[in-house]
Design brief:
- This protein is α/β, with parallel strands linked by helices and 269 residues long.
- 35% of the residues lie in helices and 12% in strands.
- It has eleven helices and eight strands.
- It has an eight-stranded parallel barrel with strand order 1-2-3-4-5-6-7-8, surrounded by four helices.
- The mean pLDDT is 91.
- It binds phosphoenolpyruvate and manganese (II) ion.
- Residues 35, 242, 252-253 line the site of manganese (II) ion.
- Residues 35, 60, 122-123, 145, 175, 216 line the site of phosphoenolpyruvate.
């Protein structure tokens, strides 16, 4: 056991003192929405997602693309950006749901702050320390998505980075890790391996809420209900799920998006 983990074991857990119930709805947080803000349809979608039982709405206005040249061909260029944020404002006004949306860059924090109730830190920025330090100086809740490579102590270290800045409003999001699942050649959209055991492992060292993301973990919608059920059974504090009115037509992450009916079934469970 390394020194850091030993110190948490000996003293006490990495603790949060703040009650997050204003945004993260206890006892169980249900966040859902499409991967990205695709256009004005987001307003209607937010109301439908609420009807499915969600208590927060997710959608990215700033979207990191793994393959920017290919993905920019559709003219969408890593999200609708400012226009996307404006649409999210309207979605929030009409649905009444708090908004979870990604911040990739410290220069955009103020702008995103105007609509976001939760700053989502994406996997690719999980150890972007200037971003984490800056979010630590804010008081707004942060959803810190695990880097696909990150070890248990690195997850806690990144969370601590935000905590030491003074911001206690954080949740850790597990979203699948690097691996080469033996079923990948049969289900090509699968990119990551579900990291369910990390729910149990983290709970030994921290009371920071753990939100599980079955969508990126699975990469294929057929597995989302089962992995959601498993994550809940293992004691995660909430789920964040990608859902879309016409999943196959999603601009980003179409293979993992689920329809409203499936979402409602998962949230009702
Ligand atoms: C997302 O939530 O849409 C996303 C891009 O997730 P991640 O950062 O986990 O890949
Ligand atoms: Mn996505």
């Amino acid at each position: 056991m390394n020194e850091y983990i030993q110190s948490l074991k000996n003293q006490n857990k990495l603790n949060l003192s703040t009650d997050l119930s204003s945004v993260y709805q206890w006892p169980y947080t249900k966040i859902a929405g499409p991967c990205s803000v695709e256009g004005p349809s987001i307003i209607e979608i937010s109301k439908e997602i609420k009807k499915c039982g969600a208590n927060a709405f997710r959608a990215g206005a700033y979207k990191p693309c793994t393959f920017p040249i290919i993905e920019e061909k559709n003219g969408w260029k890593e999200g609708l950006k400012e226009e996307g944020l404006e649409l999210l404002k309207e979605a929030k006004a009409q649905s009444g749901l708090p908004i979870v949306t990604e911040v990739m860059d410290i220069r955009k924090i103020e702008e995103i702050d105007c609509v976001a109730d939760v700053f989502q830190v994406g996997t690719r920025n999980f150890q972007n320390y200037s971003l984490l330090d800056e979010l630590g100086r804010h008081n707004k809740p942060v959803l810190l998505k695990r880097g696909t490579w990150a070890t248990l102590d690195e997850i806690l270290g990144a969370a601590e980075r935000i905590l030491v800045g003074g911001n206690k409003n954080i949740a850790i999001c597990l979203r699948g890790v690097v691996g080469m699942p033996s079923y990948r050649h049969i289900f090509p959209s699968i990119r990551w391996a579900p990291d369910l055991m990390m729910i149990l492992a983290l709970k030994q060292f921290t009371n920071i809420p753990i939100i599980y993301d079955p969508s990126h973990s699975c990469g294929n919608r057929d597995f989302v209900p089962g992995i959601s059920k498993a994550a809940k059974a293992l004691g995660c504090d909430g789920l964040i799920i990608e859902a879309h009115p016409d999943p196959n037509s999603s601009i980003s992450d179409p293979d993992q998006a689920i329809d409203y009916k499936t979402l409602k079934m998962i949230f009702d469970d």
